[in-house]
Every structure is written in C-alpha cells, then in structure tokens.
Amino acid sequence: MTALTSLLAQDAISWSDGGGKVQTNVKPIYGQQAVARFWASVASKTQRPLTTSLAEINGSPALLVWDEGWLVGVISLALGGVGIQEIYALLNPEKLAYLQKQLASA
C-alpha cells in the first residue's frame, strides 16, 4: 500500500467504464489515499492469475490485463510531475473485444 500511495499524486482520481455490463466503481474516486485503498482492494480480490502487458493506448501508457488470452481490462494512466494524476480502467467487454481485435491486426 505504501509503494502504491507513493506513486500517486495527492489529488489523484480513479474512474472506470464497465458499460453497465461489469461491476465498477460508479463514481470517480478522489484523493491519493482513497485511490490507493481502492486499487489495493481490487488487487486483493483477484481470484485467478492474470497476465499483463504494457501498451500505449490513446497516447497514454496503459496496462493491458489478460485472462487466458482474453483482454479483460485496460488501465490507463495520466502522469503528472508529482505522480499518477489519473487512473482510468476500461472494463466494458464490448469495447475490450473491439480493442483486442485492433491489437491483433496491428
């Protein structure tokens, strides 16, 4: 938790898009401590091993999250001079399927 907190700006924001198909945080989460607690909680609840890879999505660094070859999440980061300013998690299965097709054809 300490390591994660140290990476975040004081005014960090986390939000996500589940498209109404996947459970996500409905409202943005504001503040370094709240964002760190949220992501630590997400990590502790992961029930199966996932793999990750790095990519640039929409001009920003992103972590691609894979479950047995299927793209199940994209975590984009907006970086600032004082740390991670914003975390955006794309979890909408329809958008992820489209993105996976785009990545496969690149």
Major sheet: 6 strands, mixed
Percentage beta strand = 35-45%
Count of DSSP strands = 6
Radius of gyration: 14 Å
Secondary structure category: alpha+beta
Shape: globular
The secondary-structure element order is: HEEHEEEEH
Q: What is the first-to-last residue Cα distance? A: 36 Å
Percent range for helical residues? Answer: 25-40%
> What is the number of helical segments per DSSP (H or I, 4+ residues)?
3
Report the mean per-residue pLDDT as an integer: 91
Query: Which ranges are low-confidence, i.e. pLDDT below 50, for 5 or more consecutive residues?
Result: none
Strand order of the largest sheet: 2-1-6-5-4-3
Provide key terms for this protein.
globular; 6-stranded mixed sheet; 3 helices; alpha+beta; 106 residues; 6 strands
